[in-house]
């Protein structure tokens, strides 16, 4: 492994922030990418405060030019990235008959187009290094979820992208895997509770009732799984989707 530089998108908070911090603990210099560079300050500060190295980068992952500029900056300031975690995501939930064109396009652009653009741009550094790790954040919603036709479709699409990247890039020492989180306590799930008009405690209690381990997930649960996938010793694990959902039923 010639480079220990990782890029985590959507890393200003939640799962992305926890993942960036975990990878820094694992010894990576981490590019903390999010739409608003200033919002990355907290994650960068936490990493640097623990003795790690991090760089805040502002970019819209659905914009090809911004992605290209962001990856070039990371390569220049931190070094060639050989780990990519495509975590950036948004919600625009609604029932099908209420869902607007913009609701659909926004979710597709961030989740699918963003992961495609980032993977395409970073893979050249991985191919040159003959080593790479790509981890895409899917969701249990990939199996279908009321009010999330856009999100469910995007998350299912990421599983197909993951498996295809694993096939195409494997000969270069690059693996591609996906994580499908279940109910994770984040600002995003809190926003969902607000949208449906219930307190987060009520929302969480209802979700936990169907989770065998009897608790909601935490961002660190996902970060731990990312850490496994990107480890140098995990090179024979590729094209897989692991449901991190607290039980056998996603």
State the gist of this model.
With 250 residues, the chain is of the alpha/beta class. 46% of the residues lie in helices and 15% in strands.
Features:
8 helices; 250 residues; seven-stranded parallel sheet; 15% strand; single chain; alpha/beta
Task: Compile the SSE list and pairings.
Blueprint: E1 5-9, H1 14-25, E2 29-34, H2 41-49, E3 54-58, H3 64-77, E4 83-86, H4 101-129, E5 132-137, H5 149-169, E6 174-181, H6 187-196, H7 200-208, H8 219-230, E7 241-244
How would you portray this structure in words?
The protein has a 7-stranded parallel beta sheet, with helices on both faces. The protein is globular. With 250 residues, it is α/β, with parallel strands linked by helices. Helix 1 (14-25) runs parallel beside helix 2 (41-49). The longest helix has 29 residues, at 101-129. The protein has helices spanning 14-25, 41-49, 64-77, 101-129, 149-169, 187-196, 200-208, 219-230, and strands at 5-9, 29-34, 54-58, 83-86, 132-137, 174-181, 241-244. 44% of the residues are buried.
| Content-based structural category | alpha/beta
Shape: globular
Number of helices: 8
Helix content: 40-55%
SSE pattern, N- to C-terminal: EHEHEHEHEHEHHHE
> On the 0-100 scale, what is the average pLDDT?
96
Task: Give the termini separation.
Answer: 34 Å
Tell me the β content.
15-25%
Oligomer description = single chain
- DSSP, total strands: 7
Question: Ranges with pLDDT <50 over ≥5 residues?
Answer: none
Computed Rg? 17 Å
Looking across the biggest beta sheet, what order are the strands in? 3-2-1-4-5-6-7
Can you summarize the main beta sheet? Answer: 7 strands, parallel
């Amino acid at each position: 492994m010639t480079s220990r530089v990782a890029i985590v998108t959507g890393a200003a908070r939640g799962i992305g922030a926890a993942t960036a911090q975990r990878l820094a603990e694992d010894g990576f210099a981490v590019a903390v990418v999010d739409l608003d560079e200033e919002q990355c300050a907290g994650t960068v500060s936490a990493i640097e405060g623990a003795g790690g190295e991090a760089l805040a980068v502002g970019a819209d992952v659905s914009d090809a030019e911004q992605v290209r500029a962001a990856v070039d900056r990371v390569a220049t300031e931190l070094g060639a990235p050989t780990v990519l975690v495509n975590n950036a995501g948004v919600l625009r939930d609604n029932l099908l008959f209420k869902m607007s064109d913009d609701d659909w396009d926004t979710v597709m652009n961030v989740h699918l187009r963003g992961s495609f653009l980032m993977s395409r741009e970073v893979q050249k550094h991985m191919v040159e290094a003959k080593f790479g790790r790509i981890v895409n954040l899917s969701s249990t919603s990939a199996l279908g979820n009321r009010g999330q036709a856009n999100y469910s479709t995007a998350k299912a699409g990421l599983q197909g992208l993951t498996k295809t990247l694993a096939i195409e890039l494997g000969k270069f020492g690059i693996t591609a895997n996906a994580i499908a989180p279940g109910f994770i306590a984040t600002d995003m799930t809190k926003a969902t509770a607000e949208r449906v008009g219930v307190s987060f405690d009520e929302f969480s209690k209802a979700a936990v009732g169907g989770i065998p381990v009897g608790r909601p997930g935490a961002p660190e649960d996902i970060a731990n799984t990312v850490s496994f996938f990107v480890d140098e010793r995990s090179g024979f694990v590729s094209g897989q989707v692991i449901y991190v959902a607290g039980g056998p039923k996603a």
